[in-house]
Design brief:
The chain has about 400 residues and is mainly β. The chain has one domain: Beta Barrel (Porin), CATH 2.40.160. It is built from 1 helix and 22 strands. The strands form 2 sheets. The protein has an 18-stranded antiparallel barrel. Strands 1-2-3 form a 3-stranded antiparallel sheet, with no helix packed on it. The chain starts with a strand and ends with a strand.
């Protein structure tokens, strides 16, 4: 959940509980009584050597990304009510057909009835695009003359009974998502869908800083239309995930959670093959020094397909290393390994990526960054193979 008063996402992992800022800056707020407003501006200039992620005839271009954001919130004791708006303007030097403006609205409510009863509500509206060569246009970017546009609505809530000091606690959450594509309707109408998610997690404290947990997740996916050309029929499905795991904060150096389990996906159409398998979620932090943090995030899950096969069995692992060299300079290194196995198809992809960023804090309200990003896909279908390099310079500003 996004908390306006910190302008960040809160990561709750015990002694390593940190405020992971969206910016390394320290934004100042405008305030009128108990109402606070935080405006920020993110600007980037990039060069990419394979704009459409194609296996050959790669298109090179430069581009600019300008991203103003404003967040406003009301603080009432421990309760927070916030709204945010972000505009992202994409401008390409050599491919003006891909110019686009994305919009994102967020609303968050954090309400603490008491120390052991906490309720969160959040909503998000996105009017955005998929870069050509991603999403529904993977492998066919050259066949369309503009990006695929979509709108996505999300509404969710979660309730916690108990707290970190309780012997036992329960977390319940629910989420509704509606995604609709806005152009190329002859094809995209069959990908419009809604998902309803329900989850419950029970935590049991075994030591002062270690909990074991049991979790059940349910997801219902429903598609508006059935493509008459697809022999498998409807993509409507129901999926259950079952996990057992542990969450810990054993010292000032390490904290995190590990969950192991399995998923079961069944389809409404008897022409599609039900699927099940092993699943996991790993989220671990290691802090060997106060100024250096390693973060491993890994998961295996079943995802909605973009049109090939029935679903995508995804294994994704990312290792980040953030290091502060002094009070002004820091670096970020990230390595990504991902495997996508398309259930009901012969397609299987391996994706690899690496990113290196150097950041320098000019002032409390201004940061500069320079970075390099490399990504590649190796697919059983040559149409989806590509490699791509990006060099960028970024400047972030606040009040």
């Amino acid at each position: 959940m996004k908390y306006g008063r910190f302008f960040c996402h809160i990561i709750r992992v015990g002694a390593l509980a940190t405020c992971a800022p969206l910016f390394a800056l320290e934004p100042a707020n405008l305030n009128w009584g108990s109402v606070y407003v935080t405006p920020t501006l993110d600007t980037r200039v990039e060069y990419v050597d394979n704009l459409f992620r194609t296996p050959d005839n790669a298109k090179e271009t430069g581009l600019t990304v300008i991203e103003p954001e404003v967040q406003a919130w009301l603080q009432n004791g421990l309760n927070t009510y916030s709204i945010a708006y972000k505009l992202t303007d994409w401008r390409y030097f050599d491919s003006s057909d891909d110019d686009f403006i994305d919009h994102q609205f967020n609303i968050d409510v954090h309400h603490e009835f008491n120390a052991k009863n906490v309720w969160n509500i959040y909503g998000e509206y996105i009017d955005a695009h998929e870069e050509r060569g991603t999403g529904l246009s993977e492998g066919v970017a050259s066949l369309i003359d503009e990006p695929v546009e979509f709108q996505r609505d999300t509404l969710g809530t979660d309730y916690t009974l108990g707290n970190d000091g309780s012997k036992g606690r329960v977390l319940l959450d629910a989420q509704y998502l509606d995604k609709e594509y806005q152009n190329f309707q002859d094809l995209t109408q069959y990908r419009n869908h809604t998902t309803n998610q329900l989850a419950g997690t029970f935590f049991w404290k075994v030591t002062g800083k270690t909990d074991v947990l049991a979790e059940v997740k349910y997801q219902e996916a429903r598609y508006e239309e059935v493509d008459p050309l697809r022999l498998g029929g409807s993509y409507d499905s129901d999926e259950y995930n079952y996990f057992l795991g542990i969450t810990w904060d054993s010292s000032a150096k390490t904290a995190g959670s590990i969950k192991l389990g399995n998923f079961e996906r069944t389809y409404k159409s008897q022409k599609r093959q039900d699927d099940d398998g092993f699943s996991w979620e790993v989220d671990v932090y290691y802090k060997p020094r106060t100024y250096s943090v390693f973060h491993l995030a890994s998961k295996r899950l079943s995802q909605e397909t973009t049109g090939i096969g029935d679903s995508i069995n995804t294994q994704k692992s990312r290792l980040n290393w953030d290091h502060d060299w002094n009070s002004r300079s820091s670096t970020q290194l990230s390595v990504l390994l991902q495997n996508e196995d398309y259930s009901g198809s012969e397609r299987e992809d391996d994706l690899r990526g690496v990113e290196a960023v150097f950041k320098y804090s000019l002032r409390r309200w201004a940061d500069l960054s320079v970075g390099y990003r490399y990504e590649e896909r190796d697919s059983d279908f040559d149409l989806y193979d590509y490699d791509r390099s990006t060099v960028f310079v970024e400047a972030k500003f606040s009040l």
